[in-house]
Amino acid sequence: MRPAPSLIPSLALCAALVVSAQARAADDPKPTPATPEKAPVRLPEAPTPVDPPSGQPRVETPVTEPPAQPRGQEPSSRVGPKIETPPDDRADAPGAAKAKPGAAFDDLAARTAWGAGTGRRIPIGAYGEVHAGFEGSDKRDIEVRRLVLFFGHEFTDSIRFFSEVEVEHARELELEQAYVDFQLHRSITLRAGLLLVPFGIVNRYHEPPLFNGVARPMVDSTLIPSTWREGGVSLVGRIGDLIGYEVAIIQGFDASKFSAKSGSYGPAFLRGGRQGATDGGSLLSTAAVARVDIRPTVGVVLGLSAYHGGASQGKIEGGARITLLGADVRLRRAGFEARAQWVGAMVKGADNVTTHLRLTTPTAPAIPDLAHGGYVELGYEVLRHVGAAEQELVLFARYDHVDMATSVPAGMALAAEATNRQMRSAVVGATWRPTPSVAVKLDWEQPLEESDVTALAERDGKLRLGLGFMY
Q1: Domain range holding 457?
Q2: Is the pTM of this model over 0.85?
């Protein structure tokens, strides 16, 4: 039986659809399981363009990435040399309760950064002081004692330059420091150039707000001829938190310029023999000097200094050598302050130096072969009881003693020359610091004994006023 003719077209169409569907299934790949879509990464959007004033075309601002830093170099906001300001050395300073014994600090320089101690970077700075003295009714004077400008530059994070240019007595221009630091390690720095000699307290920290009294202690103007600087190289470092040190090789004294006569700082003695890397400074005689600071607990510093070296510079027949030894202690606790320092000076070949000096000045006083001196100072900060957080008012008293000729070479003293050149004085006064970097000073000095020492120019006024600053 044959199908009806009307069904043939319908069967043909169904067969074609089936074949077409099978062909598409064979060509298509097998479906894969759906995977979760990742969250899109959001890129910084361009700032929304702001319509310009009427009549001006709109300027599109493209999105740009910050420039890549060279490998090993990170962006820095530092703009100058790093001048360290040690943390506060007061046991009751902010944060001291959390500080472990022996935490790093360095003398009264802490007053410039109470509770800070991380240092500041400045391209320029200064310190200065003005003195006024009153003695009797006919001796009154005022003087811009010194103005010192700091200049520096940081070449890299480990190489820095630092310098000080001083104008003294408002007319004398001197280079006080000029050196380059090479930081070899986190706690070791190599220093080369014109250096402050690391001996004693004030020679290193001589900015006026950092010590009490209008004038520096007597021993720091005679046996330690501050500000004392010489050309050389030193190694500065720390051993943990307890010990800081500096060891240096520097120019030696020039003994041909020693003098036992009185000058503006008292008997010139070693002061005249400083060279300071000036024109014609000699290296024929060099010296070694070392300084160690020991910090057994917060608020206490014990210091030891030693110097030894030649001083003839090829000019003294028979030669000359100088040895200096020093010890000091500083204490600050609960408002109380105490300082004490002792220095001894020994001149080997003092007779040779005296003979050389008398070739041109037959009546020149003998250079001593042994001298010593020191001071003791006590103070109390009174504003701690009235809640003046930034201010200080320190009332203090100091006893100074310097013997510039404990002994002289046998047969060298002249008949008219006093061989016991001693100076003793008592100083009482006050130091007001309205801010740590500014000091207003008032003191009274009473000489207790002066033998063969004329009145000292720096100590003409027994009542003295002073203004000092640093930044």
Answers
A1: 82-470
A2: no
